[in-house]
UniProtKB/TrEMBL annotation, chain A:
This is Prefoldin subunit 4. It comes from Lentinula boryana. Keywords: Chaperone, Coiled coil. Pfam families: Prefoldin_2. It comes from the Eukaryota. Belongs to the prefoldin subunit beta family. Gene3D superfamilies: 1.10.287.370. The keyword Chaperone applies. Residues 27-104 form a coiled coil.
UniProtKB/TrEMBL annotation, chain B:
Signal peptide: none annotated. Keywords: Chaperone, Coiled coil. Heterohexamer of two PFD-alpha type and four PFD-beta type subunits. This is Prefoldin subunit 3. Pfam families: Prefoldin. Belongs to the prefoldin subunit alpha family. Residues 92-104 have a biased composition (Acidic residues). Binds specifically to cytosolic chaperonin (c-CPN) and transfers target proteins to it. Binds to nascent polypeptide chain and promotes folding in an environment in which there are many competing pathways for nonnative proteins. Gene3D superfamilies: 1.10.287.370. Residues 150-184 form a coiled coil. InterPro entries: PFD3 (IPR016655), Prefoldin (IPR009053), Prefoldin_subunit_alpha (IPR004127). Residues 82-111 are annotated as: Disordered. It comes from Lentinula boryana.
Length: 131, 216
């Protein structure tokens, strides 16, 4: 919490109404959701990088050797073409997951921006909506 | 003034009490001259109760979120085994479309490299089988035929994901109530600060006019 200078203090007109409270609540909810999305997107991005590295490796792999492809916690020996198929499938699944997360997080952000405008307009420096 | 709980009797979903919204700070405290200590303490108590519930639910959700990837991994492994078996049986029916490479790999037993311990792996060969053993927890392991195993794992996964969703809903509701209580506390405190200042100014005014009367 911070102390506000007396001359910056609000006068009585900026009371918090029930609608304001609901807007504040909504902002807080969206903020928490955004944090969740950001964490999941970070994890998905790292997985994607790993899969991309994997596809580069497989391009150079020897066709005769079997590839140890990880499924779950163990590695299965499978021929190169089979591994490439699975890799494609896994990459497609991951991309779909990532774009869904991106969409939801962008939606959250837009709503949050609108709420910020409204709340800052009413409360000015009496409210803090940024990190 | 009794510091009764400031939380209303109303309960939100699954027993989380709803926080009251203070329309008028002065009325809530009980007049312009009442003490704010009581209400402030009650609000503070409510806030700490909410925070406790919050950390509780977050822990539960974290546990579930850790379980879900495990279930997914098991499921994908069992599905792979199933795929292989289906691939094999369909190939024996349709010899014309045999892909020589596929036939080779499907007739050989399934080779895996699995973790014995951290950084220690061992190779194993899996026979063709239609049964898997699933660990159900509590030192119980049951054998299932492949389709039944897949079904069980899928339903476990669904149940876990549903639980996570409902816990998240509860958490969001809880955060709302927490935010409202924090806003309430800020407003009560600000009101008190303002009131003290007004009293001080009034006293100073009163003091000045009194000394003016005497001096004059």
């Amino acid at each position: 919490m911070r102390m506000v200078e007396q001359d910056q203090e609000n006068d009585d007109s900026t009371e918090v109404t029930w609608e304001d409270q609901q807007k504040i609540n909504l902002f807080s909810k969206l903020n928490t959701r955004m944090k969740g999305f950001e964490a999941k997107m970070e994890a998905a991005k790292q997985e994607k990088e790993a899969l991309d590295d994997l596809s580069t490796e497989l391009e150079l792999a020897d066709d005769t050797e079997s590839v140890l492809y990880r499924i779950g916690e163990t590695y299965l020996h499978m021929p190169l073409h089979r591994a490439l198929e699975r890799l494609e499938q896994d990459q497609a699944d991951l991309d779909a997951r990532f774009s869904k997360l991106l969409q939801s997080s962008q939606q959250c952000e837009t709503e949050m921006k609108q709420l910020k405008v409204t709340l800052y307009a009413k409360f000015g420096s009496a409210i803090n909506l940024d990190e | 003034m009794s510091s009764s709980s400031v939380l209303s009797e109303e309960r939100g979903a699954r027993g989380i009490p709803k926080a009251p919204f203070i329309q008028d700070v002065e009325k809530h405290i009980g007049g312009a001259d009442a003490e704010v200590e009581g209400p402030l303490k009650a609000i503070q108590d409510a806030i700490s109760k909410y925070r406790y519930m919050d950390s509780n639910l977050t822990q539960r959700r974290l546990g579930l979120e850790e379980k879900i990837p495990d279930i997914k991994k098991t499921l994908s492994m069992v599905e792979y085994i199933q795929e292989r078996r289906e691939g094999k049986s369909s190939q024996s029916e349709d010899d014309l479309e045999d892909d020589l490479e596929d036939e080779d790999s499907n007739s050989k037993p399934l080779k895996t490299t699995f973790e014995l311990n951290d950084t220690l792996f061992a190779e194993a060969e899996l026979e063709d089988t239609d049964t898997v053993y699933l660990w159900l927890g509590a030192n119980v392991m049951l054998s299932y035929k492949l389709p039944a195993a897949i079904q069980l794992l899928r339903s476990k996964l669904e149940a876990a994901e549903e639980n996570v969703a409902s816990l998240t809903e509860d958490l969001e509701f809880l955060r709302e109530q927490l935010t409202m209580m924090e806003v309430n506390m800020a407003r009560v405190y600000n009101w008190d600060v303002k009131r003290r200042r007004e009293h001080r100014i009034a006293e100073e005014q009163g003091g000045k006019s009194a000394s003016e009367k005497e001096g004059g």
